[in-house]
Amino acid sequence: MALGRIALGIGSLASPGGTARTFGARPSAELDYMTRVFGARAIALGLAYLMAPPAQRTRLQRLCLGVDLSDTVAGISELVRPTGAPRAAIGGAVVLTGTYAALGAARFVADLQRGR
Predict the structure, then answer these.
(1) What whole-number distance in Å separates Cα of residue 105 and Cα of residue 55?
(2) Distance from C-alpha of 21 to C-alpha of 8, rounded to nearest angstrom
(3) How far is CA 2 from CA 71, 72, 100, 101, in A?
(4) What is the Cα–Cα distance from 41 to 35, expressed in whole angstroms?
(5) What are phi and psi of 27, to 5 degrees?
(6) How far apart are CA 26 and CA 39, in angstroms?
(7) Cα gap 103→72, rounded to integer Å
(8) Phi/psi class of residue 84: alpha, beta or left (left: φ > 0; alpha: ψ in -120 to 50)?
(9) Rounded to an integer, what distance in angstroms lies between the CA atom of residue 59 and that of residue 27?
(10) DSSP character for 22?
(11) Which of 16, 56, 58, 114 could form a disulfide with 35 if both were Cys (CB 3.0 to 4.6 A apart)?
(12) 84-103 pLDDT, tens per residue?
């Protein structure tokens, strides 16, 4: 997952308009900025995990889970209220962040079962 975050982050920084189009959104200056912010955060989370000593990785996984859950809830809230935002773009982002959240939650449950 860390490598996926880094790859998505690099793509978001290098081509925010391309990333927006991938999710079905129309690029704009505002969206380019937000895409770059998201990309930088994704890279930071991925690198933090990869550079962390093994003993600290569980904490970082839980931090990432919190971020992914927050992103997913924010996306779902946009889907359920009429904001005029492109539903396909938001839906694609929710699928992405929801997948990361589901994987993180599964890891969290497995860690609890192992007593971590």
Answers:
(1) 19
(2) 14
(3) 17, 18, 10, 13
(4) 10
(5) -60, 145
(6) 17
(7) 13
(8) left
(9) 35
(10) H
(11) 16
(12) 667 777 888 899 999 999 99
